[in-house]
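**User:**
My hope is that you can spare some time for a protein that puzzles me. This is the protein in question:
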Amino acid sequence: MFDKVLIANRGAISCRIQRTLRKLGVSSVAIHSEADRESLHALEADIAIPLAGSLAADTYLDAGKIIEAALSSGAGAVHPGYGFLSENADFARACEAAGLVFIGPTPEQLTTCGLKHVCRDIARRQGVPLLEGSGLLGSAEEAVTLANQVGYPVILKSSAGGGGIGMQIARHESEVPALFEQVRRLSTANFGDASVFWKHTSNGPVTSRFRSSAMAPVKSSPWGNGTVRCNGGTKKSLRKRPLRDSADWTGTASPRPPSGSPLRSNTGRRGRWSFFGTSSGGILLP
């Protein structure tokens, strides 16, 4: 067990991780941009390290700066929170190469599920019910043609990254071309990936998100039936916490893991379960 963890995130996400670390007797290391130097997460951390720059692309998305900060602070692990680099396989590999534990999915798992369109394809092949959506879009014209077949509104999304960066709602086909280019531009600038797709969304002010838990058959599993349990479409603004932070056990369709059955992570501590997931899905494996 490490005694110091760098949190590669900001704001409420970082503050909540800090509170948990404090309860565990583990020191927290916060990073912050120049614009966030007076933010609560920077003020409450045991150690706060400034990163040169004010933009997210120059700070919270700069893997090199984050790893350098972790090593200089003496941290043994990096907690990515959610959004930013939390689903970036290259960042997870860089942490491991630097001798740091990445508190999250393995690089291999992130490669499989780190891109939303890939994760959706996996779920679709397994028969998991999904919201209507496209595959990767090659052009704004293709986005309009496919969206017209389903109806509006649709939400144009970057397949890479997270944190809501590169996500726009088009309520009419006339809005799609400009928003498509905007999402692609943001995705390229922040994640180095121009992949864009769309999902059908609601007519209200909130967006629909897919959440799932898939339990693989395990002899020691209390569920052990190999079924897929799906929470279906949920309203993002109605959830108090996203998937990665609260785990995927909030819906009536997904039972809570029993006490005494800790999840197994890639920190080296072994338990009865292994969890991996992204903002588009979560899977339990033995």
User: Anything to note?
Assistant: Confidence is low (pLDDT under 50) at residues 205-286.
